[in-house]
Design brief:
The chain is an alpha/beta fold. Helices cover 30% and strands 27% of the residues. Strands 1-4-3-2-5-6 form a 6-stranded parallel sheet. The protein has a 6-stranded antiparallel beta barrel with strand order 7-8-11-10-9-12. Helix 7 packs antiparallel against helix 8.
Length: 288
Amino acid sequence: MKVARSIAEVEKRPRAVAIGMFDGVHPGHRRVLQAVLDSDLAPTVITFDPHPRLVLGYGVELLATLERRLELFEEAGVEETLVLEFGHELQQLEPEEFVGRILRAMGTQVVVAGDDFRFGHRRRGDLALLEANGLSVVTIDQVDGVSSTRIRDYLHAGDIAGAAAMLGRPAELDGIVVVGDERGGTLGFPTANLAVDPPLLVPAFGIYAGAARGGSAAISIGTNPHYGGLERRIEAHLLDFSGDLYGQRLVVELWQRLRDERAFESEADLVAQIALDVEQARAAERPI
């Protein structure tokens, strides 16, 4: 998939375009993408970075990084994506200007969107404005019960199965492996310490089963209470893997929440529990 960072990088040709954040790329989003793919025009996505809510000073917890969204677009079959930097200039762009300077400039003939789609300065643009400016519009119904808000609620509660059912795939952690306390190695269970971008949602503290780099993983999210930790850590023990992951990006699927994190009577008890966690992680099945 070709990824452009400015309209100048996009060739003008007949296009069907989907516009939005598509955070999580859940089934509702994929329904929009599929409609673009089903057209006879070049299937194209316009998305934004950073999230507009962050720029406008509101909080938001993302379900996927930009890099992961782009990967999911490509997996869906999208040919091109234009990533627009959402800053003051774009924020102030009137809907008619967006149509002329962005959509027409890239050859857009059809826009695919939900019926509540809004765009442009003060969200004044809507589907009727697109049609009034000569563009065809394909309206897509929402998938009943599916929303990014509900997925976030499931993850906050540690309900990995519920989140996966609504996402249509396992929830994920996506970050860079950094140096941690290196305590896992001394216990016989070396871990990859994952640093994630602050806007990315991290599920409820606990011990999880999942997968990374094609194999099973046991994942700890929390403060390591046995050692009196205060800072949140995300540590993944990759079963049957040995190697140096420092500085590399790592995407970890979450399959099942195994238990709460807790302190133990002794380090021997901790090690015994980790061994049980590892066996449960090995036996866990992908939720969807």
